[in-house]
Amino acid sequence: MTSLALLCLLYFAVSVLTLTDSLLSSISTAAAPAASKCTLLNSFQPGFVVQGDYVIGGIFPIHFNLKMPDLNGTYRPPPINCNGHRIDPRAFRWAQSMRLAVEEINQNPVLLQNHTLGYKIFDSCGYPLTGQRAVLSMLNGVSEENSSMCTNASSLLAVIGASGSSQSIVVSKILQTFRIPMVTVTCIYVSHHKNVLLFSVTLHSVFTQISYASTCACLSDRQKYPTFFRVIPSDDYQVKAIAQLLVHFNWIWVGLLRGDNDYGRFAAKGLLRELQDTKVCVAYQEIIPLLYTRQAGLRIMKVMRNSTAKVVLVFATQGEMTPFLRDYMTQNITGIQWVAISALVKASVFSGREYYPYLGGTIGFSNRNGHISRLGDFLQTVNPKTYPDNELVHELWESLYGCSPFPSSVTQMPPCSGQESLLEQHSAYMNTSSPRVAYNVYKAVYAIAHSLHNLLLCQPGRGPFQDNSCAQSNNIQPWQLQHYLQEVNFHIAGEEVAFDAKGDSVPYFDIINWQRGTKGNIAFVSVGLFDGTKAIGEELLIQEDRIMWAGHQSEASCSHCVFTFIRCQLLKFCRLRWRCQCLCAVPVVFQDPGRLSVVGSLSAALTVYHVTAAKLAIRQ
């Protein structure tokens, strides 16, 4: 056998090692490993489980923080756990929206007739590491402990999640390990007399992922994330909307605050790209560390306090901003005009009256309002009495009421019945008047249901697959479901749901302004919209007379005085040409906003003159 054939066999051997054991059983030359040798090292329990003919997974950041295990390498690490008593009522409501959607679909006499959906819902703690563990547990079957390990493929068809973009990237990469849709790995040994086909392995598994809150533009790359869909607009559209907002209000000198993750990184990069051909300049870009410390927060606040930029853009989530704002309020920093992104602009956890002096006037873009008619009633049924064995429900009660239905020495909380009434005061959980992320979750489940319904309606001989075949209802492959998901088009609550070639949905945002409510708290008021289907330049519609700005002012912040404008333009030019000479001159020009000495004025005039002369020289 020639070296080419040996190389081919070696490639095949390496390829085989990357396949799941269930696929190895279909190759006669490789023996399946004994099931007794494949053991579960750690267990990761789902928060909610329901059996069904077809199973979908759900990943939600029900807790704020992750309790990191001790990884000293001398013993087996303990299971990864989310920090208790730091539950996010909003994310808990998102998970309940998924459960409600599945319940409605299973009761629907038309949609998925004679078939039912099941689910496994996990808590990601808002961290990629836990999201990774969650999706692996989904792939292990309905019951991780009782399943036959390493012997067959998972019954999972799709995953709803994750929330953050970094989590979704991790989940997508893991799901891709179990896919190569319709790709044939073929190696041909070529001799002088004939071609011999040594082997051909075709893999058909491709697990679809639909995110309800991941907006990173990077996830639109079909080469890297071929199975990713989302029911929320990409950040490409959101940064375009923010750039247009800054230009509209002539905010040309702004600060930028972002999270230390893929979402914040790509969003900031996209915004800077959108601002290149405008007059807007970014005074500073600060990063909230993933593992937040007070020292890091105070350093960022010092930059904000000393900067002349009074408009600050935020590319961070509620979980990232919560500890930062706790320290921010102690520093008594006011007068900042915040511009928030969709992940933050409707965070009801910041709607208390104590936040208004610091966050009042915030403006930003939010996902479109939706309507889930039964959500409020469904949430009322979730209590410790109904779910006595569910730890997440117990923690929700402890978070809402400060008491425990099952008190112990660990919780150290006073007892309660577990049947207390959920009131309007629990707005972070019970606010169902204008669901946004919860509505996205709801849409995502229905998108899977409609795609599955269309798949089951396929007529033999008229199908979309090889030889006009259809999927087998008792053996649906995830890649077959993805085909129908790409084509799905339906209406829900008066809205059309469909996906483009990149898996993105129609870009549409409400413009939200944080105003003082009747009780002194923060009210989220809609003051306009951004419609991505409109022509360029016509997407933004703002009702300026309805806006209340920072400091309870009726006029927009001045972030464009003449001195700041000149410095901004100098810096922007210096980034392009003659960097060293320009940057040496700029710091001398403006030491304090609005104040120019005689020397400073002369320096400014000379700097502008030389920069102008340089521009003319370059053009010639």
From TrEMBL:
One of its GO terms (molecular function) is G protein-coupled receptor activity. The keyword Cell membrane applies. It comes from the Eukaryota. The keyword Protein biosynthesis does not apply. GO terms for cellular component: plasma membrane. It is a multi-pass membrane protein. It is found in: Cell membrane. Keywords: Cell membrane, G-protein coupled receptor, Glycoprotein, Membrane, Receptor, Signal, Transducer, Transmembrane, Transmembrane helix. Residues 1-18 form the signal peptide. Pfam families: ANF_receptor. Residues 94-516 form the Receptor ligand binding region domain. InterPro entries: ANF_lig-bd_rcpt (IPR001828), GPCR_3_Ca_sens_rcpt-rel (IPR000068). Its main location: membrane. This is Extracellular calcium-sensing receptor-like. It comes from Solea senegalensis (Senegalese sole). The lineage of its organism: Eukaryota, Metazoa, Chordata, Craniata, Vertebrata.
